[in-house]
């Protein structure tokens, strides 16, 4: 799974559990609020982050269908419309990265569903109380490396990578680590860490069987995925309430995460 495994975790709380950086909000057959790209052309794309925080705070206190249905217009106007406009505006910038990232302006594209998958959870509250954005390389938002950003009522967090690699992907990554004594993966992780987004990935307790536990790169071999993510940060209203500054900020986050996504796409996927 992608960093998504783990956006709750990306944000200090990146398949969980890019939201655990993705939320389990990807339930089929849920009602989807429509986003009219034609109608949005030329419209102010600004987010009002204070009102978004208030909405999320109220949602947490009233996490039930009746309340959400009564406030669905607020969800549409405060969150869906401005964020999908923002995603659309980021497309060219993200396509120019290496790897190119997809910015898909629709719900369950780059804006993940707010509905929680409660089928296997003791917590039956129906809605996520954070907003999850994903920009991904590859073919699928939850099955590819990417950059995940989560907006919470008390701040935002972000990260990149892929949470749970499958058997073949792990074999490729471990072979690559052995081939250069862990140099490439170390460089990718260090590049993100320079921006205060450190390694935060699932690991084995021991070096996998068949590998040298005393090798200088042995700790890298314990990884079950490759994820970096930051501590949740407070919102800067001067950035989040200004369309151009916010777009530049989100694009810059994706650029900072580029080395991790590049490593995964070049060496693992």
3D structure, described in words:
- This protein is α+β, with helices and mostly antiparallel strands and 269 residues long.
- 38% of the residues lie in helices and 9% in strands.
- The protein is built from ten helices and four strands, in the order ααααβββαααβααα.
- The protein has helices at residues 37-40, 49-61, 65-70, 72-95, 167-179, 183-193, 218-221, 237-240, 243-256, 258-267; strands spanning 131-136, 146-152, 155-162, 226-229.
- A four-stranded antiparallel beta sheet has the order 1-2-3-4, with helices on one face.
Comma- or semicolon-separated keywords:
269 residues, alpha+beta, 10 helices, 4 strands, 9% strand, globular
Question: How are the secondary structure elements laid out?
Answer:
Elements: H1 37-40, H2 49-61, H3 65-70, H4 72-95, E1 131-136, E2 146-152, E3 155-162, H5 167-179, H6 183-193, H7 218-221, E4 226-229, H8 237-240, H9 243-256, H10 258-267
Antiparallel strand pairs: 1-2, 2-3, 3-4
Helix pairs in contact: 4-9, 6-10
């Amino acid at each position: 799974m992608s960093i998504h495994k783990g956006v709750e975790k990306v944000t200090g709380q990146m398949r969980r559990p890019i939201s655990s950086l993705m939320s389990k909000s990807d339930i089929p057959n849920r009602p989807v609020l429509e986003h009219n790209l034609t109608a949005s052309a030329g419209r102010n794309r600004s987010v009002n982050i204070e009102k978004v925080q208030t909405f999320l705070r109220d949602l947490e206190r009233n996490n039930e269908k009746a309340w959400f249905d009564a406030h669905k217009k607020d969800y549409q106007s405060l969150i869906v419309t401005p964020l999908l406009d923002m995603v659309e505006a980021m497309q060219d910038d993200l396509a120019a990265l290496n790897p190119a990232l997809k910015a898909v302006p629709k719900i369950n594209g780059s804006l993940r569903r707010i509905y929680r998958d409660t089928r296997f959870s003791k917590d039956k509250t129906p809605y996520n109380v954070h907003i999850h954005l994903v920009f991904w390389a590859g073919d699928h938002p939850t099955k590819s490396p990417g950059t995940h950003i989560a907006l919470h009522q008390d701040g935002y967090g972000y990260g990149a990578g892929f949470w749970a690699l499958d058997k073949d992907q792990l074999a490729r990554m471990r072979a690559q680590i052995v081939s250069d004594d862990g140099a490439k993966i170390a460089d990718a992780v260090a590049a993100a860490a320079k921006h205060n987004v450190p390694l935060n990935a699932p690991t084995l307790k021991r070096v996998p069987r068949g590998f040298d536990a005393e090798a200088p790169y042995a700790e890298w071999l314990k990884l079950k995925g490759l994820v970096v993510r930051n501590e949740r940060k407070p919102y800067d209203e001067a950035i989040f309430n200004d369309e151009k500054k916010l777009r530049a900020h989100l694009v810059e986050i994706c650029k900072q995460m580029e080395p991790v996504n590049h490593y995964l796409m070049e060496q693992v996927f």
